[in-house]
Amino acid sequence: MTSTRAADSFALLEEVAAVVGLSSADATPIRLAENDLWRLPGKIVVRIARPGQQQAAAREVAVARWLLQHDVPAVRPLPLNQPVVVQGRAATFWEELPPHKPGCAADLAPLLRRLHGLPRPSFPVGDLDPFVRIRDRLSEAHSITEQDRAWLLEHLSELTEAWTNLPQGRPRSLIHGDAWGGNCAVTATGALLLDFERTSLGLPEWDLTSTAVAADTFGSLSPKSYNGFCRAYGHDVMTWPGYPVLRGVRELRLVTFAVQVASDAPGAAAQAQYRLACIQGRRGPRPWAWTAVG
């Protein structure tokens, strides 16, 4: 992470904190990647979205409040008028979690089952867009060649076409939208969900695909753990004929995220190039053992 990147993010943090009467003095960065996360004194977390994500940020706060009303364990937004928008970027404010660890597949499955069984919210959440920000990431990236950019854009077009012709699946429901272990935290009192910027109405299979990819693409989840996830949820998405398309979309998202991170952090370039080589068919069959970036 460059010092300029951190300094620019902190300057924005100062502005958004001032709008709601909070001090950014002694703020510390948690993570500066797809979103910028900062910790303020008083156990407050500020989440600053990328430009153009005001609607998603507002939906995230509304969904978190709604889930708490329906007794689904979730991170708590502060009782403020939010999001706050400064310089075209939306910021939201949250209670910092107590000591916790990332959730595993066994923690996530029961929460997803509860979420998918809820009635539709009374406020608009929109429909799932599995391709959100992919084209923007590619247009902004300067860590790839023009040849690779063209290949990725063509691959995006192919997957978009395949998505429109998916076979019949499970009934549409409210879905998390980015359901992986990092968006499930386990505290002393149990597991809870966080990060609702992609929550929408859509295919519940999309939420299940993230865990399937951990086993299928990453090789980081054992067959035993994956089978336990399927039993706890009640369905194995890999048995659905549409799964390869969802897997391909998820993989493309993870490739373009790595490309985006590599544009700001050159140390991520090797992993971004490796992921790209994998989906281009130049690294053999899955699993490919991708490692984290950002």
The major beta sheet can be summarized as: 5 strands, antiparallel
Strand order of the largest sheet: 1-2-3-5-4
* H/E series: HEEEHEEEHHHEEEEHHHH
Shape: globular
Radius of gyration: 19 Å
Q: State mean pLDDT (0 to 100 scale).
A: 95
CATH class category of the largest domain: Alpha Beta
- CATH T-level topology of the largest domain: Aminoglycoside 3'-phosphotransferase, Chain: A, domain 2
Number of strands: 10
Number of discrete helical segments: 9
Beta percentage is 5-15%
CATH architecture of the largest domain: Alpha-Beta Complex
- Parts with pLDDT < 50 across at least 5 consecutive residues: none
Whole-number count of domains: 2
How would you briefly describe this protein structure?
The chain is of the alpha+beta class and 294 residues long. It is built from 9 helices and 10 strands. The protein has a 5-stranded antiparallel beta sheet with strand order 1-2-3-5-4, sandwiched between helices. Strands 6-8-9 form a 3-stranded antiparallel beta sheet, covered by helices on one side.
